[in-house]
Amino acid sequence: SVWCGIEQEIALSGGRFQNCLREIRKRARDVEDEKKGIKIKKEDWEKLHVHIASYNNFPTAAGLASSADGFACLVFTLGKLMNVNEDYGELSSIARQGSGSACRSIYGGFVKWCMGKNDDGSDSMAVQLVDESHWDDLVIIIAVVSSKQKETSSTSGMRDTVETSPLLQYRAQVNLCR
């Protein structure tokens, strides 16, 4: 099972976290560090439990993509731990299973989220357009005026947008990532 500690430790035994963990485990490779006396075979990753302590100093569920950052960090870190040899595009596709926007958070800089063509969304991933050094003079300031949780979750808000916005429906039909 996966544990995530914020103010208290809670079990994350299902859903989005487990999907990400399962996908990373599928891609795991042998890990060997002779100096530290570590040798983990690819097949052993399925049996090992992972304990994750995550502490966030940013408001959660306030509309600032903290869950996207968290899932991107989770997937990237598990990938490093388990010696995954995937490129950022593949990792972004895995992170997207935790939080849609997480696919963009794998990269730095200016990133585009491509819908893909597969019905199961398996080819939906992010593409970096320019890296974080492209606009040296760009500065973004975020002033947190309230750490209160937003009333509408991102999932509900996006579902409502998909159902009611003709502009978003057009964008999905045109698929700007071709």
Please give a quick description of this structure.
Residues 140-173 form the Mvd1 C-terminal domain. The protein has 178 residues and is α+β, with helices and mostly antiparallel strands.
What topology emerges from the helices and strands here?
Blueprint lengths: L1 E4 L3 E4 L2 H13 L3 E3 L4 E3 L9 E3 L13 H16 L6 H9 L5 H4 L4 E5 L10 E6 L23 H11 L1 H9 L4
Parallel strand pairs: 1-5
Antiparallel strand pairs: 1-2, 3-4, 6-7
Helix pairs in contact: 1-2, 2-3
What would your notes on this structure say?
Residues 21-48 form a coiled coil. Belongs to the diphosphomevalonate decarboxylase family. Pfam families: MDD_C, MVD-like_N. It comes from Triticum urartu. With 178 residues, the chain is of the alpha+beta class. It has a single domain, classed as Ribosomal Protein S5, domain 2, CATH 3.30.230. Helices cover 35% and strands 16% of the residues. The chain has helices spanning 15-27, 66-81, 88-96, 102-105, 154-164, 166-174, and strands at 2-5, 9-12, 31-33, 38-40, 50-52, 110-114, 125-130. The strands form three sheets. Strands 2-1-5 form a three-stranded mixed β-sheet. Strands 3-4 form a two-stranded antiparallel sheet. A hairpin with a 4-residue loop joins strand 3 (31-33) and strand 4. The protein starts with a strand and ends with a helix. Residues 1-8 have low confidence and may be disordered.
